[in-house]
Amino acid sequence: MAVRNYTIGMAGHIDHGKTSLTKALTNVDTDRLKEEKERNISIELGYAPLKIDDELHVSIIDVPGHERFIRQMIAGVAGIDLVILVIAADEGVMPQTKEHLEILSFLGIEKGIIAISKIDRVDAELLELAEEDIRDNLKGTVFESAPFVLVDSLSKKGLEELKQQIKKELEHKEMRDARGPFRLPIDQVFSVQGQGTVVRGTVYEGIVEKGSSLQVLPQGIPVKVRQIQVHHEQTEVAKAGQRAALNLGGISKQEITRGDVLVSSEHFLVTDTLDITTKFVGDLASPVKQRAPIKLHTGTTEVMGTIVFFDRNEVVEEDDEVVCQLRLDYPIVCKRGDRFILRRPTPVETIGGGWIIDPKGSKYRFGEDTIKMLMQKKEGTPNERILSILKEKALMTFEALLKFSSMDKDDLTAILNEEKGNTVFELASGEYALHSDFEYIKNRIEEKLREYHEEFSLRAGFNKAEIVHSFLNLYPKRLVEFVIEKLIEEGFLKRQEQYIQLATFSPHYPEKWSKRMEAVVIAIQKDEIEVQPFEQYMKSEKIPEQYKDDFKYYLIQARKAVALDENHLLSIETINKAADLLKSKTGEEFAVKDAKDVLGLSRKYLIPLLELFDALNLTKRVEDKRKWV
């Protein structure tokens, strides 16, 4: 089975045992900073790997609980799939617990586990009272039905039960989208001596590979991924749902900051005007007035701006969602569906949260018409529903789309006809897929082949089966094969036997070794039939051993040489010259002795040469003689 990657957050009030519980589960102390050790509180986000089993790998984010470090907390939970809300048995629900609950709710985090910690500090009666109090406080929140696990980090009580509960909660949780363009909101930036700039974050979507070309937004700075680490282990790839550290080339530490976003595509918007739908907290300290200053937190970004209403001049108390707009002081990177938190800069408090309807809003008139338009944007069109299903499923038949969309057959037909050639395409099998997925597969294949051609310039190309296999954790096999065949048909790719190459590529000598490889070819031609072992020519020219097999195969494929035996190559010119000479000095047939007299070769070279003539269909052996074909 494929490995499933998730990120879970450890949230709760200060000193309720989040860091201790993380360490007990993972054996990793997430308090790294000197100040954290001295003050015994978490200031920055802490990360630790938790391997549940071979198929389920989890990254735990230990988020700060102190109210002054709430921005780090928001950055930490923005990318998580499950939260463990830690509540100490001897203190119960505290103000910070309630604020964390609100934030988690606004960020759309629906799955959670309540870990009642420090149970060894209280007796059975107090523990029962604590459980009742916690359940009362959770009523009406997203965690009202969350499972409880009793734990103690020092005695290790309940740890195994907590691991099993984590496994149960994540069992049917859909993984983050690894198919789309890569996106990593950056929450840490630092430099390593001799290595350069390193960034950390949770991979929101997509996949990144070592050597990939990316962009840092909103600045638009191109970078190259030199190395990738997932929990301090070197890896070739990082996927959606994983915590990753990327060593970047082409950028200094000073040019990048927390809140910037690392992306693989130019399709991400950089914007400063967002149409949003938001829910406000129930106990605002004071009304939120029209054009009031706010601080937006989305992903790892925090930016000041103003809130603009189109149907009111203030929010005093509001239970329903409100569609409105944010106008930001600085541009950010986001997309439709991204969650956010709104905080008031003074007095400092969380005032609400929601999701982005349209990341590229415009200026609208105050009034009911604008509210109707924003509500339509929020609901999404039938076309958007179909595109959303195809984005999730990648490849679907008409019948499957009918089932998942609950649409009328004629309506679905009309939408598909409208979207064909624009956002949707149809395979010969009658299945439908998105053009964006086609482009993604195409771009990834191009990237893979460019890197492969650069590293193995002597080879004919990448094995098609390996290319197809590399996509199978993201896309169905028939979709990938369709894209490859289409790209060959369009002349973007070429096929040579089982190998695929870019149409613009031809196998060639590596630039660094081209003169020495040419010298090898000249030496083989000069030695004619009495050649040395091929390895000897490589050593004479000091060409690295790693090129031996590729170089040899290239010479044979390019018809510059033919294998005399396992260790010797003959140039095509030598073979043709020997065959012409022998043919001119013999009749329709000849014996080994005749060939020896004409060519003057010892049996060491003569017999393999004659057998080569047979293999090349120049001659045919009949008993003890050979006939020219």
Automatic annotation (TrEMBL):
Q: Which residues form the Tr-type G domain?
A: 3-176
Keywords noted in UniProt: Cytoplasm, Elongation factor, GTP-binding, Nucleotide-binding, Protein biosynthesis
- Is Nucleotide-binding tagged as a keyword? yes
Molecular function (GO) terms for this protein are: GTP binding; GTPase activity; RNA binding; translation elongation factor activity
> Which Gene Ontology BP annotations are present?
selenocysteine incorporation
- Tell where it localizes: Cytoplasm
The question of whether Nucleotide-binding is a record keyword is answered with: yes
Chain's role: Translation factor necessary for the incorporation of selenocysteine into proteins. It probably replaces EF-Tu for the insertion of selenocysteine directed by the UGA codon. SelB binds GTP and GDP.
PANTHER family linked: ELONGATION FACTOR TU, MITOCHONDRIAL (PTHR43721:SF22), ELONGATION FACTOR TU-RELATED (PTHR43721)
Q: What is this protein called?
A: Selenocysteine-specific elongation factor
Q: Which organism is it from?
A: Schinkia azotoformans LMG 9581
